[in-house]
Design brief:
Blueprint (H helix, E strand, L loop, with lengths): L1 H13 L4 H7 L6 E2 L2 H10 L5 E5 L5 H10 L2 E6 L2 H9 L3 E4 L12 E7 L8 H11 E12 L5 H6 L16 H5 L5 E13 L1 H9 L17 E13 L2
Parallel strand pairs: 2-3, 2-5, 3-4, 5-6
Antiparallel strand pairs: 1-7, 6-8, 7-8
Length: 238
């Protein structure tokens, strides 16, 4: 129970404002290689969905794109009141809520998107069961997460093992969990590199407790070239 409370408190603190999220996004401004965001959009567009739910959608960039480019009805659910506020400012039907207890009817959605958020869910099995419940027969979950070697060079700079190794939903272990709730699961790995200067390194570190030593360490050799490795899982109900 303590671990669940700690994770819930961590998520509330991380997304109380947009600052931590934007600091992490800045790390990918100079990204090269596969773009997992494009993979995610393509997996949604592939089924021309009428109604889409995005859980933990942050500032709503993907929800906005799905609505504008695909003409889908999009609803956003997020535990952060600030993220919901930002999404609503973009005209998204966003609501404060929890993926572990979705306030929707069975089979209500064609697609559910969960990008870089399922590793925050205290009871992953319950969250996945709820997602499967609100999807129609043959509906699709598009979920994205990271691999243990994602940002390896940044973790090595901090002399730390990657915290991704503790995730309940990572590239390495997510498929097993998904197969308990979905009839089919397909994975697609997105690999590349990003280049980070000292300001970006310190900003990212300030947003992530396990990398906090980098906030005052250094100076660093610049630029730091860092690998990226994310995985897209497309899971469908029977």
């Amino acid at each position: 129970m303590t671990q669940l409370i700690d994770e819930a408190a961590f998520v509330r603190a991380q997304y109380e404002s947009e600052h931590n999220l934007r600091a992490r996004k800045a790390a990918y401004i100079n990204a090269e290689g596969d773009d997992p965001r494009e993979f995610t959009f393509a997996a949604v567009a592939d089924v021309t969905p009428r109604k889409v739910l995005e859980v933990g959608g942050g500032e709503g960039e993907l929800a906005e794109r799905i609505r504008d480019e695909l003409g889908s009805e999009v609803i956003g659910i997020d535990q952060s009141e600030r993220m919901v506020e930002i999404q609503r400012s973009k005209g998204i039907d966003a609501r404060v809520g929890d993926v572990q207890e979705l306030p929707f009817a069975d089979g209500e959605f064609d697609v559910v998107v969960a990008a870089w958020m399922l590793y925050h869910v205290p009871d992953l099995d319950r969250g996945l069961a709820e997602i499967a419940r609100v999807l129609r027969p043959g509906g699709r979950l598009v979920a994205v997460t990271n691999a243990v070697d994602h940002l390896r060079e940044l973790w090595e700079l901090a002399h730390q093992a990657s915290s991704v190794g503790n995730f309940t939903f990572s590239s390495e272990n997510a498929e097993e969990s998904l197969r308990c709730h979905f009839a089919s699961v397909v994975r697609l790995d997105a690999r590349g590199w990003t280049t980070m200067d000292e300001e970006t390194i310190r900003g990212f570190a300030a947003s992530w407790t396990d990398l906090g030593a980098l906030v005052t360490a250094g100076p660093f050799d610049e630029p730091l070239r860092v690998r990226r490795h994310s995985t897209l899982f497309v899971a469908e109900t029977a």
